[in-house]
Amino acid sequence: MTDAAVSRTSPVPHAAAIYLAIVQFFFTVGWSVYVIFLPKLLEQAGLPKGIAIWILAADQVAFMLSDLVMGVWIDRARTTLRRLGPVIVGLTAVSCLAFLLLPQVVRLEKDVAKIALIAALVVWTLTSSALRVPPLVILGNHTAKPRLPLMLALNLSGLAVGGAISPYLGVTLRDMDPRLPFALSSIVLLATTFGLIWVERALAGAPVEPSVDAPKAPMHGSAGAILFFAAIAIAALGFQLHFFVNSAPNYLRFAKPADLDLLMPVFWIGFNLAMFPAGAFTKRFGALHVMALAAVCGVVGIIGGILATSLPMLIAAQFIAGCAWGAVFVSAFSAASSLGSPGRVGIAMAILWAVLALATLGRMLMVGGGVTRTPDLTPIIAWGPAVAWLFGGLALAQAARVLRKR
Predict the structure, then answer these.
(1) Which domain does 19 fall in, by range?
(2) Nearest in space to 24 (alpha carbons), one of 288, 207, 343, 272
(3) Distance CA 76, CA 28 (A)
(4) Domain membership flag for residue 240
């Protein structure tokens, strides 16, 4: 069966990818709500709000561990994937319950509130991995490899849109009673997650085109795969520093603080728009080659932002950087799926998520430790993302050569 035939007879992967994007969108919105209100919740529980950055850093450690455990479990359960949807829904129900309780437990007696808040945070973080690794594995296991990059772009667009609206959420929600946004986020996310059972069943029954060039054995342990994950870690740290540390100060050179809510999403607009053509290029030229080229193009955007002499120039540079990271991001998941095929897609996807969480952890530790505010390190923080993306791009090109030889 040709890919065109599958496209005509099996619209299920497209519908599933769009539905999973909706789930990812609400998951991202929930995370944004959590970040916005965490300092206030800590203060209400009698804890110093200054430890919020360290709790967020601890969340990333929990994400890494739970992602890896989830990836191993998925691979072991691959022969019974029909049962994966209900398990995801069950874990998400526990996660949403813990999330719902966060603004409630802080109203208890102070000593009890501290313990209850930390317990709810741990439960929520550990169970949140049910919506990180498994949906992508479900999509990857039931989608023909040539079509997977586009399906991943559709799915990951939910994360991009959620990230784009996070500045607006910060302005809209910051003075609101946290119980309402926490409740709405929990209920909507849980309601949409129930549809994963349908998604899984629909994908399992849809015809799939076999990939004639699929590897006969997983290459997740090869030198090329290790180099790939290391390159992603470096590039992801560059992204973290560029967007979350450097972008706002760069904009404030030409704009007022009130304008940031309109300017910060420019990066995510480029991110979302670039994922779809990147998916098409990945199908034709290979994920690692697309990632390497995109990372190098991103260097142009970062340097352009540093050297910009006007707001329009800076906006254009941020858009280019967002396009570059969008291409790297979607191609990375496509590459991870290929590296884990057959039979180890779960752990490959989990390692990728863990690497991204590690980069986030690195940025949070730098912010919490005051590294990003040290005057002597300002040039390194400013130019570091460009160096990281350049080095990451070169490492990805080398990984492509190593894997091609293998």
Answers:
(1) 8-205
(2) 272
(3) 28
(4) yes
Long-range contacts of 253-257, Cβ-Cβ distance < 8 Å, separation of 24 or more: 253/308, 253/314, 254/308, 254/310, 254/311, 254/314, 255/311
Give the number of residues written for the chain.
Answer: 406
Measured between alpha carbons, how far is residue 101 from residues 62, 108, 118, 194, 283 in Å?
19, 11, 11, 20, 44
* Predicted local confidence at residue 291, as pLDDT: 93
Q: Where are the alpha helices (DSSP H) in 308-344?
A: 311-340
Q: At what angle do helices 195-205 and 84-105 cross, to 10 degrees?
A: 160
pLDDT of residue 147: 78
Does residue 175 sit in helix, strand or coil?
coil
3-state secondary structure of 72: helix
Q: What is the CATH number of the domain that holds 111?
A: 1.20.1250.20
217 lies in a domain? no
- Judge if 177 and 301 occupy the same domain: no
Residue 310: which residues within 8 A CB-CB, separation 6 or more? 254
Determine contact, residues 315/138, Cβ cutoff 8 Å: no
* pLDDT, tens only, 100-123: 999 999 888 888 888 999 999 999
CA 10 to chain centre: 27
Secondary structure of the chain: what % helix, strand, coil (to 5)? Answer: 85, 0, 15
Residue 82 to residue 202: CA distance in whole angstroms: 10
262-272 residue pLDDT tens: 899 999 999 99
Nearest C-alpha neighbor of 274 from the set 322, 332, 336? 322
Domain boundary among 170, 205, 240: 205
Note the pLDDT of residue 11.
55
The answer to whether position 213 is within a domain reads no
Q: What is each CA distance from 145 to 1, 69, 98, 401, 405, in whole angstroms?
A: 14, 25, 37, 20, 21
Whether residue 167 is found in the same domain as residue 246: no
Question: In whole angstroms, how far apart are CA 173 and each of 27, 186, 297?
Answer: 17, 16, 36
Residues near 83 by beta carbon (within 8 Å), at least 6 away in sequence = 77
Beta strand spans in 11-164 (E): none
pLDDT digits (tens, 9 = 90+) for 17-74: 888 888 889 888 889 899 999 999 999 888 898 899 999 999 999 999 988 988 888 8
Residue 323 pLDDT grade (very low, low, confident, very high; cuts 50, 70, 90) = very high
Mean pLDDT for the chain overall = 85
Tokens in use for 324?
A: 């570059």
